[in-house]
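It would be a great kindness if you could assist me with a short task in structural biology. I am sending you one protein, given as its amino acid sequence and as whole-number tokens for its backbone shapes. I would ask you to consider whether the tokens describe a fold that such a sequence might reasonably adopt. The full record is reproduced below for your convenience.
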Amino acid sequence: MCGAKAGGPDASSATSGETTIQGSVTRDGVPVAGYVRLLDATGEFTAEVPTSATGQFRFYAAEGTWTVRALVPGASADRTVVATRGGRAEVAIAV
């Protein structure tokens, strides 16, 4: 089991200029519990967080191209996201 906080780090812990990748995981429009992985541009595992009770997740990352992978019972889905320095990339993942 992952020791990360459900949903990822709290937004109040972000510093000015922090690059944020966040979003939600749903199935048929309903939030779903599971895990979300962050993979770098080469596909290497970087981080993992459990989703919150409302399917939310958040990562702080370097700028660049990332893959966000949702892993839920019976399904998985990937989304590619480009994060910019100091920006916030929103990712909606339907599984």
